[in-house]
Write a structure and sequence with these properties.
This protein has 340 residues and is α/β, with parallel strands linked by helices. It contains 7 helices and 18 strands. It has helices at residues 2-27, 119-126, 159-168, 190-197, 227-236, 276-283, 317-320, and strands at 48-60, 63-69, 81-85, 91-95, 105-111, 132-139, 149-155, 174-181, 201-205, 220-224, 241-243, 257-261, 266-270, 300-305, 308-309, 323-325, 330-331, 335-338.
Length: 340
């Protein structure tokens, strides 16, 4: 009997030890290196959902709209986006362009980018009605604020986050939309936008004249579209709120720099044509990441030394003081030290 009691005690101790070890590794994936005071190995991921692709339709040249059905879906507000986990495992972000009050489905649209990184091509060629997709979110880093008036600038598929905003504006609100595209056939939701806005909407085929755009005092300016259009709008209206399709770039180009991983005692070279994340994952292949575009925050890491060239669309000013998203951000000088 005493022997059985001893065996039971030892077995119980083993179970407890395994549980403690599992929790310790969850706190610090690089264990047994010391854990951060506040772990920054990534933001908690939104609860993943499995949704049915209920419909897939072409809404403009090179643009498909997906309606994803579920039950009791989280509510969202205009400007929000979803993370779509594609069949290959790629994660891409798409603005919600349906009805925020509809808790049974989400609607997104994407344009085929022939020379892109593969996400849009996978949506167009492999996502079909009847299949299930994993989604995360919604998240909103492009909210509609209260303002006396509004000016919206959309380029092509950039209409998607702005469309729910237009629908949500209170009656008698003063607003204008400049909607530009290669041609009318390539501009999604154009018919709805024109019916919704009437004289409030200016449609331009080709490059728009931003100097002709009147912005009243106190107006909130929103823009979404290709990087060239976004840069022009930001130069013309410095207070504009932007929704980007891709990480921002530097006008000075990229340079090679070094990254010291302080806790693991390694120093890495980040080439001009690569990223900190790629360099880190060659040494630490289990480093968490997801979107690789500076949108989701999974790869956020604490920076101990060096000046950061922030290129993400997520971190607050406070967070940027001592951390970075290593998938897109770089060093302003020749060296960074990261707490990894």
């Amino acid at each position: 009997m005493p022997k059985l009691r001893t065996v039971a005690l030892v077995a119980g101790a083993v179970v407890l030890a395994r549980g403690a070890l599992r929790r310790r590794i969850q706190v610090s994936p690089l264990w047994p290196l010391p854990a951060l005071e506040e772990p920054t190995s990534g933001r908690p991921r939104s609860r993943a959902l499995r949704l049915l692709v209920a419909s897939r339709e072409t809404v403009a040249d090179g643009v498909v709209r997906l309606r994803l059905e579920g039950r009791d879906l989280p509510r969202w507000e205009p400007g929000a986006h979803l993370d779509l986990v594609l069949p290959s495992g790629l994660v891409r972000q798409y603005s919600l362009c349906g009805d925020p009050e509809d808790t049974s489905s989400y609607t997104v649209a994407t344009r085929l980018v022939a020379d892109g990184r593969g996400g849009s091509r996978e949506v167009h060629e492999q996502v079909t009605e009847g299949m299930e997709l994993e989604v995360r979110g919604p998240r909103n880093r492009f909210p509609l604020i209260e303002a006396p008036s509004y000016v919206f600038v959309a380029g092509g598929i950039g209409i998607t986050p702005l469309l729910p905003m237009l629908r949500a504006l209170p009656e008698h609100t003063e607003w204008r939309l400049l909607y530009a595209g290669r041609d009318r056939a390539s501009m999604p939701f154009l018919e709805e936008v024109e019916k919704l806005g009437g004289d409030h909407v200016t449609v331009v085929e080709g490059r728009p004249d931003l100097d002709a755009l009147e912005v009243g005092a106190g107006a909130a300016v929103y823009a979404c579209g290709p990087e060239g259009l976004m840069a022009a709008v930001a130069e013309r209206f410095p207070e504009v709120r932007l929704e980007r399709f891709a990480p921002r770039t530097s006008s000075d180009g990229n340079i090679e720099f070094e990254v010291e991983l302080r806790r693991s005692g390694r120093t890495l070279t980040v080439p001009a044509d690569s990223t900190v994340l790629a360099a880190v994952r060659r040494e630490l292949p289990d480093t968490a990441y997801s979107c690789e575009q500076g949108f989701c925050g999974t790869c956020q890491q604490r920076v101990l030394e060096g000046e950061i060239d922030h290129r993400d669309e997520l971190l607050t000013d406070t967070e940027r003081a001592d951390s970075m998203l290593i998938c897109v951000s770089r060093a302003r000088g020749d060296r960074l030290v990261i707490d990894m």
